[in-house]
Design a protein that fits this description.
Oligomer: single chain
Structural class: alpha+beta
Helix content: 40-55%
Number of helices: 25
Low-confidence stretches: 193-202
Largest sheet: 8 strands, mixed
Length: 679
Amino acid sequence: MSSPLQGLNKSEVLQLQAQHGFNGLAVADKKTLFKLLIRILAEPTFALLLLAGSIYLVIGKIDDALILIGFIFISVGITLFQERKSEKAIDVLKELSSPRAIVIRDGITQRVAGKDIVVGDILVLAEGDRIPADALLFEAHDLLVDESLLTGESEPTKKDSANQVHSGCMVIRGSGIARVSAIGMQTELGKIGSSLKQIISLNSPLQEDIGELIKRVTIFGVSLSIIVLAIYGLMHDNALTAISLTMALLPEEFTVILTVFMALGVWRIARQKVLTMYAPVIETLGSITALCVDKTGTLTLNRMSLEVLATPQNILMLSSKDDELNPSQKELLGYCVLASEVKPFDPMEQAFHEKRHLAPEYINQTSEFELVHEYGLSPELPAMTHLWKAPGSDECLVAIKGAPEAVLKRCNLPQTQIAVIEKQIKDLASQGLRLLGVAKSQYTKQSSNWPATLSSFEFTWLGLVGLKDPIREEVPASIQKCQGAGIRVIMITGDHAITAQAIAKQAGIDSASVLSGSDINTLNDLELREAVKKTSVYVRIKPTEKLRLVKALQANNEVVAMTGDGVNDAPALKAAHVGIAMGQRGTDVAREAASLVLLNDDFSSIVHTIQQGRQIYDNLHKAIIYVVAVHIPMAGAVFIPILFGVQPILDPIHIVFLQMIIDPALVQLFLRWKRLKAM
């Protein structure tokens, strides 16, 4: 078996998959061909067709009966084909939406589908990930895991090395590395039961309304037909008239229209690299009026590069070639690396590690130190703190990096120096740089327990690091399209206000008014509703504040779409009318809460998806209006002659011909005419 740091190689993975199978739970029974056939034949339309065909046979009209039965076979065949096609599409969508996992294979960190995990794989666990299999930890850094799925306990569990983590549980904080010990039905989740078997299909409001309309019209049509049968049937001994009237009144096309339009919508949107988690959201896409987006990774490329080292004495702009750093700049960079993950996955921390060679003396001096404790990011303190200890010593180096204002508060500085640093922050942020403050401290461990908070440490300010994350090339044009379509784009970020304004200007978002998380907390719900009407840039936003923003926009009758990728984004994604999660960098919990998943994390895909949603929604309404309109003359052609005591103009075979051939053709011509008229 390969070493833990190298992980498995390709041949070992294939061998283990052949031996143990894939990592997945048993799924619920799929729809069989027989079950689908029974459900289709139970539809009122098919029941009426069968009844009409039988009557034609009884009265001796063999040709008409065969034609009707032929239409039944055609309808059933088309419906079965569409159903099986939808089943296959759903299977593919489930495959794409299954949890992803970060593993080390052949010494390379890579992201794979959760089903491809094998026993012996090395998992890299990060905040927000859903654990794909049972595994044994051999590294853990401030690791908290939500095990409520298994234990029912709401409080997250602290995990250390040599602890077990279980499939289906969520990493709430910290990171870790573990070796997979069980997969699929052999995991604790698999043994307890199959809570993941049931997939609930939700009906949209439009589907519910149409279902209720069909039910009422059916009751009315059947009741009217019974009355007609009692009178007209006794006089002429012909039940075909009552069947004709019921078929003419019943708008059975609604169900077909919804199914086909939704299936086409899912397929068209998938071509834009967007995964639809459930079809009814397509209706809502056409009504979006406010689009809330994250800055990092959505508007920008999320490819961080370290551009600036700013000590209290001077500011160094890093060039593409190796720069000469003075001792204070080397210390700043060195402590910035020490406050980052040892094996970084975050693009920002990767950027720090890429420049660590610029401070070789300092990095080499601490290379033998051991990371003994860490304080993770939290809403109360947006900063990360690491404690490093030299072998055989109780003295620890303490490194902290985070939001400049948060780190600055931890340092006891004179007001004159604070003013200098604040000017540096303002100048650098105006260039669109993302800034982090860095500080250091020392600590002597005197007991077995580490301090519960950072109040025990006296920090010394080292300086600022500035990172550049270029804006996506397609973003300005996409935002202009949104605004032209009446959709307001709102940027929500954790960055400094000046940085956010600079990026918003580049993207074309209105940055005249900016609100911070602390500003939002001073407003009541009514005041916030007024504020969101004129503000499109929000900075230093926490999860609870993001949720309040969504609710305030909804209270103003806005139809809100929200993008997100982290654990903390899940409540806002769930609350929004359309939650959009990032497929590549998003966490599993964000994807589970969202209704759409961007497979390529491309902002322009959101815009194209909204355009498709509007077109589908518009066509859907036009088709429904047409169906209602076309059923009125059909019903009249049957019912009016009855009032005058003459033979009805339309028999069941005529109505079927209209509904099966003329209706679809006219719908297509109607929609094509509308498109040409709009051009």
